[in-house]
Amino acid sequence: SASNFGIASTRAIYERAIVALPQQEACTMCIRFADMERRLGEIDRARALYGHASQFCDPRTSPAFWRKWEAFEVQHGNEDTFKEMLRIKRSVQAQFNTDVSFIASQALARSQLPQGATGDGGEGGDEGEAAQADAMKALERQARAPMGFVAASAGPEGGSRPAVAAEEAPANPDAIDVDDV
């Protein structure tokens, strides 16, 4: 804490933690760091920390972060800073809005639903859930496959094709044997 180590040392500790931690924990550390800066009256530093943390927080899966930043801007900002926060939010949402991240966020949202809830208001049958799971698995496989990559063992022969020996190759009657000259 700042009272134990001093402001300069505490900032360095927070900075090292943000770099070293995984994204979700780094986001939490950024929020704590921003809260400390806000308490010290360093509003611009706190705002910069929220901006840095925003790159880790998809607005669809981390709404608490975005509500906290919005409350910060309402309390300490002005119309321009609030608009900038909204612009960053749209930009981050567009960044996370790829097929893979969308599927992952939807899967996360479904996993957080209570047992038996399908998220669409109706009750899902076992066959429908199995079909959705198969479709999800197929999309995940497709998303993990490198773009433009063709495996060497793919195809009907699968890499187990026997090698063609040189003797089996058809002979060319017009070929010139250079070794005998």
Explain how this protein is built.
There is one protein chain. With 181 residues, the chain is mainly alpha-helical. 61% of the residues lie in helices and 0% in strands. The chain is elongated. Residues 119-124 have low confidence and may be disordered.
Low-confidence regions: 119-124
What coarse outline follows from CA principal-axis ratios?
Answer: elongated
Class from helix and strand fractions: mainly alpha
Total helical elements: 8
- Share in helix: 55-70%
Could you describe the largest sheet, including whether it forms a barrel? Answer: none
Termini separation comes to 88 Å
Estimate the mean pLDDT confidence.
Answer: 74
Count the beta strands.
0
Alpha-carbon Rg, integer? 29 Å
Strand content: under 5%
Secondary-structure element sequence?
HHHHHHHH
Give a quick precis of the structure.
By secondary structure, the protein is an all-alpha fold.
Task: Note the main attributes of this structure.
181 residues; mainly alpha; 8 helices
Question: Can you lay out the helices and strands and say which pair or pack?
Answer:
Blueprint: H1 2-5, H2 7-20, H3 23-39, H4 43-54, H5 63-76, H6 79-96, H7 99-111, H8 126-144
Helix pairs in contact: 2-3, 3-4, 4-5, 5-6
